[in-house]
């Protein structure tokens, strides 16, 4: 059985991150010298999922340009100016198949998934967002989904706490603590597995995959959650961007599951 395709929703406006997204789409905001979208794809590829269908919207041409132009320039090149040929010498190029599909600038998340139906061949698929990283065990997630036999599985995560804290010592002295990675409660962290029958439930391009599709599946007891207690971090604000960049810069990025 061939590995599942991975759908990545990469068409949103990213309005809460306007400092970065006025000139590029949110999935192109960089951690280190690569966009967060690349980090997400590396995580999937490390588990053997190397075919991606990326739903484009806002500034989608910037994402196309990254795959067509920017990645092609990585590594050493030999250029024959007389013939125009380019020989690439890099030995660490990612062997991915990437389908870049325009799904409209204002389409809902459900509508974007529906527009990808011709690329999914009526088969189950992975689904996630182009703005969050995690160290979730994707093989275990897929095994969990298959064992439960439901129409969809979401990875349930605990949101990072927004604030740091104070720890009291003797005589009311205090010390500062870093904000904990794990907050209270569970939320949908993306990293989903979806059966093809779900696409037939999407009736309009404005359909929200979360509010309309997943909630309906939940009411029908056709949605299960894969509890992930490890690292998960969205990139919603400039503070999030700085945090992810600091983890990468110090060599302590928990989402790096590849070597």
Write the layout of secondary structure elements.
Layout: E1 5-10, H1 18-21, E2 30-31, E3 34-35, H2 36-46, E4 51-56, H3 60-70, E5 77-80, E6 85-88, E7 97-102, H4 109-115, H5 117-120, E8 125-129, E9 132-134, H6 138-148, E10 152-157, E11 165-168, E12 174-177, E13 187-188, E14 192-194, H7 209-219, E15 223-227, E16 232-234, H8 238-249
Parallel strand pairs: 1-4, 1-8, 4-7, 10-15
Antiparallel strand pairs: 2-3, 5-6, 8-14, 9-16, 10-13, 10-14, 11-12
Helix pairs in contact: 4-7
Features:
single chain, 259 residues, globular, alpha/beta, 16 strands, 27% helix, Spore Coat Polysaccharide Biosynthesis Protein SpsA, Chain A, 8 helices
Describe this entry's structure for a reader:
This protein is an alpha/beta fold. It has a single domain (5-249), classed as Alpha-Beta Complex (Spore Coat Polysaccharide Biosynthesis Protein SpsA, Chain A), CATH 3.90.550.10. 27% of the residues lie in helices and 25% in strands. The protein has eight helices and 16 strands. The strands form five sheets. Strands 1, 4, 7, 8, 10, 13, 14 and 15 form an eight-stranded mixed beta sheet that branches. Helix 4 packs across helix 7 (209-219). The longest helix is centred in the C-terminal third of the chain and has 12 residues, at 238-249. The chain is globular, with a radius of gyration of 20 Å.
């Amino acid at each position: 059985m061939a590995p599942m395709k991975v759908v990545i929703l990469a068409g949103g406006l990213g309005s809460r991150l306007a400092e970065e997204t006025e000139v590029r789409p949110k999935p192109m905001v960089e951690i280190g010298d690569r966009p967060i979208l690349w980090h997400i794809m590396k995580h999937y590829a490390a588990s053997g999922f190397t075919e991606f269908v990326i739903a484009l919207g806002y500034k989608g041409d910037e994402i196309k340009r990254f795959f067509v132009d920017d990645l092609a320039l990585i590594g050493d090149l030999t250029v024959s100016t007389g013939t125009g040929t380019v020989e690439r010498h890099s030995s660490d190029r990612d062997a991915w198949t990437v389908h870049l599909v325009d799904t409209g600038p204002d389409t809902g998340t459900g509508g974007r998934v529906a527009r990808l139906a011709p690329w999914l061949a009526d088969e189950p698929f992975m689904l996630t967002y182009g703005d969050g990283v995690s160290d979730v065990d994707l093989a275990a997630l897929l095994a969990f989904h298959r064992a439960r036999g439901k129409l969809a599985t979401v990875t349930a995560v605990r949101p990072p706490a927004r604030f740091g804290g104070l720890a009291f010592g003797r005589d009311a002295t205090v010390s500062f603590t870093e904000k904990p990675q794990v907050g209270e409660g569970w939320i949908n962290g993306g990293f989903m597995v979806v059966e093809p029958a779900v696409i037939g439930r999407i009736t309009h391009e404005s359909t929200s995959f979360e509010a309309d599709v997943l909630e309906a599946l939940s009411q029908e007891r056709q949605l299960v959650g894969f509890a992930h207690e490890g690292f998960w971090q969205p990139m919603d604000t400039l503070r999030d961007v700085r945090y992810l960049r600091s983890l990468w810069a110090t060599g302590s990025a928990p989402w790096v599951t590849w070597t």
